[in-house]
User: What shape does this take?
Amino acid sequence: MDRDARSFLTELLETPSPAGFETRGQRVWLEYVSAFADETWTDDYGNAVAVSRGEPDAPEVVLTGHADEIGFVVQSIDDDGFVRPGRIGGSDATVSRGQHVTIHADDGPVEGVVGQTAIHLREENGEPEVTDLWIDIGAADGEDAHERLEVGDPITFSSTYTWLTEDRLAGRGLDNRVGTWAAAEGLRRAVEAETDATVYAVSTIQEELGGQGARMIGFDLEPDAVVAVDVGHALDYPSAPSEKGSDVELGGGPVVARGSTNHPVLCRAVREAARDAEIEIQLEALGVATGTDADRFFTARGGIPSQVVSVPNRYMHTPVEAIDVGDLENVAALLGAFGATAHEYAPFAVDV
Assistant: This one.
């Protein structure tokens, strides 16, 4: 990974982007892609789009990832000044106690900690719920807390990322800033390959709340095909429930999904692009749904051929998600290779 791409990735990871509050992260993304896109823009809710215009009769394809991360929101403030959080997306209460958090208030960040009764004083009684959590911001009372923040302010864990090795990266919000990074880098590589296709890179909002941004963009752009990049479960760690997924591991390459939402012609196009570019891939079976933006794209406008490509990820929806950066780079290379050959597979229709 070259220096500029690495700096772009780490800046994305350092920029809080909870679902519904993605603006800061989208600014970072747009600044990067504007260097090689023909045009960039945003819609009314903050979906960010970059495009490289191709030949008039060539297909239009979208490379996309979602900008938002899970988090919490200030649900209420009690009389003693403790903050009661609500969930943004699929936040996990079991990994939240004892964590440092940042509340993103209008007047600036407010630091806090998620309280936990000391082990000496508590009786274990099962996994906590979000309603069991409280955040201590050091307030003297409720009035003091209300002067510093208000109901509805978003909350993220304060930690960002750490390099475990030269190739292994861990941190908060890899789901799915790695996907928006790959979409941007995929566009750059398709541009360098002088593809005939019109290629869009899209950083969507509110995937963690049901793929809402993808619904908007799928309707607005009406592309011929979409490749959605997200993270997928790597099950190569102790106690991993291997019976709940396909055999996916860190360092094994991009994960190409098959089944349900994933369009068979588009899947073949992606797999053949990987083969021709000598990119090793892993396969994943998704027989019901993908749980990604692709589930929203593929039914938009009467049906848009859609495909999921995943970055293997350990410990999803925790502050210590872990990936192999080689997998991420190969996802970007695969997107670029697909973008360069997309015209060979258009119009992506199933032959019945």
